[in-house]
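Intended use. Records such as the Lipoprotein entry shown here are meant for training and evaluating sequence-to-structure methods. They are not intended to support clinical decisions.
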Amino acid sequence: MRIRAALLAVLLTAVGCGSGDTGAASDPNAALKVGVSPVPHAQVLRYVADNLAAAKGLKIEVVEFTDYVQPNTALVDGSLDANYFQTVPYLDTFKAESGAPLEWIGPVHIEPLGVYSKKHKSLADLPSGGKVAVANDATNEARGLKLLQDKGVIKVKPGSEATATVRDIVENPKNLEFVELEAAQLPRSLDDTDASVVNGNYAIDAQLNPAEDALVLEKAEGNPNANGLVTRAELKDDKRIKDLLDLLQSQQVKDYIKQEFSGSVLAV
């Protein structure tokens, strides 16, 4: 979802004037407030908070968000101390548009992007003129179009792959109609589309099993779209942030992800 002018103004004000609630930055004994998407991020973080954090003396407050903008704006304004929901490409786009002083700390897992349909069993079955929904935020739209290109459905303008939108499609043999929607709305669009390209977290939240229900999935190998831990610049060297990343990347968490999500979420 591209940052609207009013939202951008709020961000720049927060960056320029400082945060209103510095949380962990002002009290080293305070609980870390970490913003997450409900699935799978909140589940993983709660596993850490309930089972692993005490060993490192960490206190973690899990704060859930249902979109991809608020976890960053809340981190910028100091309402959060970290978030765990986004990829490096998404963070880079956000920082470029907002000037927000956010820092990538490290990767945790990959949610393979998938193409889903309630009407068709394969991409080959998509009809001429069929409707396909993709995310309307810059990172996930390009990611979805790349998946469709990799599977031979379309081609985008050479050199545009990392930032492609539907306007960059140069070959569309089936004359598919592309609809851009907020990522959270994509699972609900399946009743009205021939196929929709859905982020892994929203697919799981909608009771879809990416490993079984997707017509096609992204490959995990070499995938730059790992979800990871992000914080503000002044907290990047905070021991508690580093301890949290250690726990999120621990073998215990890898085992939990494997058992809980059965291949729909892949630890890195």
